[in-house]
Amino acid sequence: MKRQLTIATCAAVLLVLSRAAAAGEYVALPGGELRSVMPADGKEAPAIVAAFSMRSAPVSNAEFRQFVLAHPQWQRGQAPAVLAAPTYLAAWRGAADHGALAPDAPVTNVSWHAANAFCASEGARLPRWHEWEYAAAADATRADARDDPQWLEHILNWYAHPASTPPSRMRANAPNFYGLYDMHGLVWEWVEDYSALFVSADSRTQDPRKQLDYCGGAALSLGDRRNYAVLMRIALLAAMEGAQDGGYLGFRCARDAATDTSKLKDSP
């Protein structure tokens, strides 16, 4: 009987561990005020970011393969055209086979709808823009390194490199201050509120151009090198539709602190 209980206990532990691994590692971030390129009042007020948690790395090819196996409606060729473009998972060898792509490289060519569905499958969501910006402001030792010209130069160098090969494996470099990997230099990332980044404050406007009323003209000065790298991401996301994707566009998931039930890694 004792041996049977031990076996049962071990099986239960293994099941919990496997579920935790399937859900990825989430890192707790404390939140706080953020000097955002998109001020909360459209002028200069800081954004207030509530405590939340975020996947320590983007979702990988291997993880997304497990997702489409469990949810075949998101396999290539099965997802409705309104939710996924013809380029969805274009680099994969088959509907549920990432082929020669590294299993621990970030999955790309994934639509916003598919990314959102993946996050929902593990009780999460895509990070909101201010959460992503807050997390991405950190370097290895500081919560906000954006005033360091050397760090900014390192980030900007990635934008100058041609995207001629698939993204490389994750976690090749040290994590940032919060324990997050590859916030810069590997892939672009979807955010939950991507469609609200460049829209007019007045939805009734007839001006066909996407306006910057929400963002504030002064904050969005492309002459400010401190803002340039993050503005590149905003510009990309603002140009996207939910069904579109890209060869260097991936995602990671986030959770509200109050509802996060995963095993969190404490922030420094």
TrEMBL record:
Residues 1-23 form the signal peptide. This is SUMF1/EgtB/PvdO family nonheme iron enzyme. The keyword Cell wall biogenesis/degradation does not apply. It holds the Pfam family FGE-sulfatase. Keywords: Signal. Residues 25-255 form the Sulfatase-modifying factor enzyme-like domain. It comes from the Bacteria.
